[in-house]
Structures are given as structure tokens and as C-alpha cells.
Design the sequence.
């Protein structure tokens, strides 16, 4: 038996956390904690904390625990023990040192993937409890440097990657021009009022993966979609503020996004292959704004592709012929049940599909989610160490013949890239869009 | 001896029932009010059909993946909880007491079965205890409160078996039996034992979220 103690880490060297902690006093900590607890939480948090019978059954749910050779500190309940249990037991009377360790646990040792809620007999939502811890850390100004930088970018530019307004439009025009070499009449229609589909992407697309916009334009054109993209802020559907605990900013961002779509009187928002952005639009951001469900229908790329294939809107030359396996991104599988649609799209586009196990709702997270990858280099090694179980899963799929991993989520790409590289898995990573673009009949 | 007996079967028994009922009611009402004030969304997303779907899966032995991953634990927890409820409610001696005091009665278990059920509870508690000190992930979470609660839960059943078999000193054990039973009842509202009442709500809520919003299974 141990009394509640935080992970005896070697100490973090993250400057965001360290500088934040330097400015803390016990009084401030107590005041902020109690403010958050009394004004923002209620029976839900209380019940989650009081009901836990410390049976440890949630451990099996967490890839951190499984990857770290079943180190008890990494079980979901243990992470709560090192953070919110202690805080609630002491009614906020905790030290700056405690906050430092709690921040490391809450921001970097949980992907908020909600898998453990399916393993705890009571369905206790540990991800929610750790989000409250993050919220407290945000209010205390103790946030890992790199992710806080993306949050700053969000508040200055409305997007995650410091993309300036003119750079955004430039990028779209550049991609349009490139694509016109292939399809002379192709357009990336900007600000078209009343279009059926408002297409939004995440900040990193124009910044690092502009070819994805190119591919999306190809697919939309081939499908004869009546679509548009906004030239104004609101084009970025991603949201790191949701993960830092900056809920005020999350609300602003989601508002910008929804309003960009409603201003153009779009019938629905189709979004690119991203998991966390989907979570922010479909689950957390809309709720924060008071919408039980999103104010405009939200269609994730997988659902959109599914529509294309089930309604025969797109023709393929021939199926992708290398054996593929599919990574189920938590945010759209445990977040929106898109796993069967994803399989249907894979089967429509690929010749050989090999399942990873466990899969669907039970799939392991890639280790990047919940903003963990966005906490950057100071936590990279620890993150990759916590994905051993994912690597084993990939190796098993590879042993069955899979050569390509399809991951229909940006974050998962980042995470899996590191897993594949670190553990020497040697498989190729692709988006579903990559595959569709590769095999589809290019329109005239 | 008789005086003590009179006290613990009289006023103390009433007290423990009152604390149990009053305390549970108090906790329910205060949690409900807090939820109404602070967690309005919970009521929005609660969905009876999905809540029941999830609860049904989790009340079915091996109905969730995690139960299949931990077969021994699954068998023990299910038998423990079943025995824990059935034994005290239907043991002949209890029903006779009820009949004498209030003139009400219901079906009873044969002594043999009641004895076995009580032993199931006791051995389960020993299993849980062993798990708490041997499995690192459980040990890490365990506090002395957990152990004390485990003892309080095991006590009425262990002493019940003792009294039933009339082992040495059983008259004293009868007192301990009644007292520990009352104690267990009285602490339910104020300890983790309250999970018995919260289970339908926590499970039901996550079931509703998964079913209604996330469109995914949660078992
Ligand atoms: S499984 Fe649930 S009740 Fe058990 S320790 Fe984990 S969170 Fe607590
Ligand atoms: S939400 Fe995911 S990462 Fe976080 S504790 Fe649960 S299983 Fe682990
Ligand atoms: S990055 Fe992908 S796998 Fe990881 S939490 Fe997000 S959706 Fe899940």
C-alpha cells in the first residue's frame, strides 16, 4: 500500500511547466483549484472520484500501462490518484512541486482516448477527470511549452500553425494550380455561398501536408461535389486549446469554425482525416458552446468516403494491391463509431485487408492523441516508450502480411510514424485519401 | 449479556437502518441537486435505452471484454455480489426474526445453501485482500480504508458461519455478527460501498454517451 504520491520522475525539463511552477504559491494554487472545482465541476467529478473502488481493472484498458511493463503508476486510476484524488482530498492544499508532477501526468501520460472507460466496470471516465486536472494546470499557467505555443497560435491567428491569412489563401491557390496540371478545370472554390459541403482541414495541412488539400480537391471534383472552402479564419477545425484546458479559446475556435460555415450557408461540414479535430467539433467544442449536437451536420472524411463508394460517386481504376492494415483512431471510433464505415471503404479500395487485434472500439491508441505529441521533444522519448504495445500490434499485422498501415487521422500519423521508426516496424503509413487518390479515375 | 443483546438488536439496529436509509437518501439528493446545478449536460445525454444496454452487458458474466481477460476475478466478483445480497436477505434465521418482529416473511434458503453463500463471501473477501496486496496495480491504488472496508464486509458473514456452526464462543460471536452487520449497513452511504447505488448511474451515463453520441459499444 502506498499513500498518494506522484510519479517519482527524473524531473521534467519542460520550460513551460518549469517557468509556470516558479510563479506559483500555495495560496494561488488553492484559490484557483477551488475556483475550478466549485464553478466548473459538480456531481460528475465527485461521483467519478468517490465511486472508484480502486480495483485496478481499468489497467488493462490503458496502453501506457501495458507498454510500460505493467508499471502500476501508469494505470488509469493511478493517474487519477496522482492528480485529482489528492487534490480533492486536500481540498486544493497542494504544493507547486505537486502541480509540476500532476501536469506531467495529466498532459503527457494520458491520451484522453477513453479506452479505460470500456474496461472500468463502472464506466468511470478517467479522461474527463484528467481533463479537469489539465484545466486546473491551464488556469495555473503550468502547461508544456510546445502545446502552449500551438494554443497561442490559435488565439492569435485562429489556426494552430501560425498560418497568416494570406498564406492560407496562397496555399489553396497554389494547390489549385498544381492540380490543374492534372485536371485543367479543377477549382478549389473559395467562399461559395450555399454550397452543399463546407470543407475544413487542420492547421498542419497547409503548413506541412498541402498535398492533402490537393488530393481532397481531386476527390471532390471527381465526385462532382458542390463544395467550398473559406478564405477567412475558421478554416482550421483543429483545436489544441481543448487539450491544454483553455476552454474559453476552444469555444472561440469552434464558434469561428461553425460561423465560417453558416456564413456561407453551407449544408454540412465535411472535415479531413483528423481525429482530435472531430472530437473538438462533434463532442467537446459544441457542448462548450451549448449545442447538444453540432449546429451543422459534421461529416468526417471516413463517412464522406463511405458515401462516395456506397453511392458510386467515384470510380476506381483498380484496387490498391499491397496488403493493408487499419488503425482505428480513438476519436472517431470510440468517439463516433466510424469503424465499420472505415472497413467498408478499405474493402472498396484495397485488395487485401488484414485486421490488427484488438480492433474497432478496443484498438490501442497511437500514443500521440490528447495533445501528447504536441507537447513536443521534451516528452518524445517517454511517449514512444509508452507505445510498445502498439508496435507489437503492428508487428503482428505485419507478420500476417500487411505492408501498409492506413491511419485516417493526422495525429495518429504523427504517433505511428514515431512508433514505426523507433521500433523498426518498417511499414508504410497512408491516409485513406492517399489510397483513394492513387487508385481513382482522374476526372477529365 | 442479555442487555447488550437487547441494545444491539433494538436501538442499534434501528439506528443502523436509519443511518443507512437516511444517509443514502441524503447522498442521492445532494448529488442530484449538485448535478442539476452543475452537470446539466448529463441529463441531456442520459438515454434510458443505451443506459440499460450498457448495464445489461456489465451485469452479464463475461459480457465485457475485460471480464474475459480476467476470468478468475469475474467469477469471484459475480459470485461475491450475488451471495452478498442473497444470503442475508433469505437466510432462515433473519426471516424468522422479521416474522417475530413485524409479522412479515418470505421464502428462505436452506441452511446448507446459506452457509455456502456466506463462505463464498468470506473467501471472496480473502481473494480481494490477496489481490490488493499481491497485484502491483491494485496495491498501488489500495489504502488502509479499502482494507478496513473489506474486513467490515467480511465480518458479518464470517461470524454468521461461526454462529451457524455453533463453534466455541458462539454466543459472543452472535453479538459480533449483529454488530458488524449493522456497522456495514451504516457505512454504506459514506464509503466506497455506495458504489452499489451509483453503479447504474455511472454505467448508464457512459453507456448513454457511447451509445447515443459516440455510436460505439462500451463493453
Ligand atoms: S476500474 Fe474503475 S473502479 Fe476500478 S480502479 Fe479503475 S477506475 Fe477505479
Ligand atoms: S484515457 Fe486512454 S490514455 Fe488515458 S488513462 Fe484511459 S486508457 Fe490510458
Ligand atoms: S491520435 Fe489517433 S490513436 Fe491517438 S488518440 Fe488521437 S485518434 Fe486516438
Sequence:
Amino acid at each position: 500500500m502506498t499513500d498518494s504520491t506522484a510519479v517519482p520522475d527524473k524531473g521534467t525539463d519542460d520550460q513551460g511547466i518549469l517557468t509556470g511552477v516558479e510563479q506559483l504559491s500555495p495560496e494561488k494554487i488553492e484559490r484557483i483549484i477551488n475556483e475550478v472545482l466549485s464553478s466548473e465541476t459538480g456531481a460528475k467529478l465527485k461521483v467519478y472520484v468517490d465511486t472508484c473502488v480502486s480495483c485496478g481493472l481499468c489497467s488493462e484498458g490503458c496502453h501506457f500501462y501495458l507498454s510500460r511493463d505493467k508499471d502500476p503508476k501508469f494505470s488509469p486510476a493511478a493517474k487519477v490518484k496522482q492528480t485529482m484524488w489528492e487534490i480533492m482530498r486536500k481540498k486544493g492544499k497542494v504544493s507547486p512541486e505537486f502541480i509540476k508532477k500532476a501536469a506531467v501526468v495529466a498532459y503527457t501520460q494520458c491520451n484522453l482516448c477513453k479506452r479505460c472507460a470500456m474496461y472500468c466496470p463502472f464506466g468511470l471516465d478517467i479522461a474527463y477527470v484528467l481533463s479537469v486536472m489539465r484545466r486546473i494546470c491551464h488556469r495555473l499557467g503550468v502547461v508544456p511549452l510546445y502545446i502552449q505555443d500551438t494554443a497561442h497560435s490559435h488565439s492569435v491567428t485562429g489556426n494552430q500553425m501560425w498560418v497568416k491569412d494570406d498564406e492560407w489563401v496562397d496555399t489553396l491557390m497554389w494547390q489549385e494550380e498544381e492540380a490543374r496540371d492534372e485536371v485543367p478545370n479543377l477549382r478549389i472554390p473559395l467562399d461559395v455561398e450555399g454550397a452543399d459541403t463546407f470543407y475544413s482541414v487542420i492547421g498542419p495541412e497547409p503548413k506541412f501536408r498541402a498535398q492533402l488539400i490537393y488530393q481532397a480537391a481531386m476527390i471532390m471534383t471527381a465526385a462532382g461535389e458542390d463544395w467550398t472552402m473559406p478564405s477567412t479564419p475558421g478554416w482550421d477545425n483543429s483545436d489544441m486549446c481543448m487539450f491544454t484546458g483553455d476552454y474559453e479559446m476552444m469555444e472561440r475556435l469552434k464558434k469561428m469554425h461553425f460561423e465560417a460555415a453558416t456564413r456561407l450557408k453551407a449544408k454540412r461540414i465535411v472535415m479531413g482525416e483528423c481525429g482530435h479535430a472531430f472530437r473538438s467539433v462533434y463532442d467537446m467544442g459544441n457542448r462548450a458552446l451549448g449545442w447538444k449536437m453540432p449546429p451543422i451536420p459534421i461529416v468526417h472524411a471516413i463517412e464522406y468516403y463511405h458515401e462516395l463508394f456506397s453511392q458510386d460517386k467515384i470510380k476506381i481504376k483498380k484496387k490498391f494491391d499491397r496488403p493493408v492494415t487499419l488503425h482505428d483512431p480513438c476519436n472517431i471510433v470510440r468517439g463516433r463509431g466510424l469503424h465499420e464505415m472505415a472497413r467498408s471503404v478499405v474493402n472498396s479500395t484495397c485488395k487485401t485487408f488484414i485486421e490488427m487485434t484488438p480492433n474497432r472500439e478496443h484498438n490501442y491508441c497511437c500514443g500521440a492523441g490528447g495533445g501528447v505529441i504536441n507537447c513536443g521533444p521534451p516528452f518524445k522519448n517517454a511517449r514512444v516508450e509508452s507505445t510498445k504495445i502498439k508496435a507489437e500490434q503492428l508487428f503482428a499485422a505485419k507478420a500476417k502480411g500487411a505492408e501498409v498501415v492506413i491511419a485516417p487521422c493526422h495525429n495518429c500519423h504523427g504517433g505511428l510514424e514515431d512508433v514505426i521508426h523507433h521500433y523498426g516496424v518498417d511499414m508504410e503509413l497512408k491516409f485513406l485519401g492517399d489510397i483513394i487518390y492513387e487508385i481513382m479515375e482522374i476526372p477529365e | 449479556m442479555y442487555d447488550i443483546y437487547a441494545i444491539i438488536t433494538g436501538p442499534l439496529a434501528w439506528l443502523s437502518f436509519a443511518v443507512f436509509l437516511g444517509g443514502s437518501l441524503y447522498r442521492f439528493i445532494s448529488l442530484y441537486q449538485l448535478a442539476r446545478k452543475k452537470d446539466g449536460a448529463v441529463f441531456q445525454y442520459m438515454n434510458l435505452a443505451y443506459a440499460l444496454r450498457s448495464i445489461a452487458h456489465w451485469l452479464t458474466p463475461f459480457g465485457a471484454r475485460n471480464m474475459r481477460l480476467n476470468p478468475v476475478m469475474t467469477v469471484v466478483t459475480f459470485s461475491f455480489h450475488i451471495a452478498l445480497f442473497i444470503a442475508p436477505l433469505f437466510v432462515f434465521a433473519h426471516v424468522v426474526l422479521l416474522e417475530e418482529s413485524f409479522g412479515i416473511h418470505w421464502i428462505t434458503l436452506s441452511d446448507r445453501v446459506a452457509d455456502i453463500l456466506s463462505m463464498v463471501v468470506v473467501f471472496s473477501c480473502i481473494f480481494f485482500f490477496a489481490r490488493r496486496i499481491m497485484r502491483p496495480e491494485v496495491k498501488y491504488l489500495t489504502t488502509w480504508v479499502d482494507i478496513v472496508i473489506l474486513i467490515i464486509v467480511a465480518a458479518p458473514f464470517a461470524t454468521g458461519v461461526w454462529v451457524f456452526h455453533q463453534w466455541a464462543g458462539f454466543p459472543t460471536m452472535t453479538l459480533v455478527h449483529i454488530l458488524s452487520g449493522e456497522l456495514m449497513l451504516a457505512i454504506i452511504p459514506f464509503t466506497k460501498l455506495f458504489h452499489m447505488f451509483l453503479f447504474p448511474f455511472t454505467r448508464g451515463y457512459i453507456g448513454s454517451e457511447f451509445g447515443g453520441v459516440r455510436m460505439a459499444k462500451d463493453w
Remarks:
- The pocket of iron/sulfur cluster (ligand 1) is lined by residues A 52-58, 76-77, 120, 122, 124; B 141 (CB under 6 Å).
- Residues 11-38 of chain B form the longest helix (28 residues).
- Chain B has a mean pLDDT of 95.
- The two ends of chain B are 52 Å apart (CA to CA).
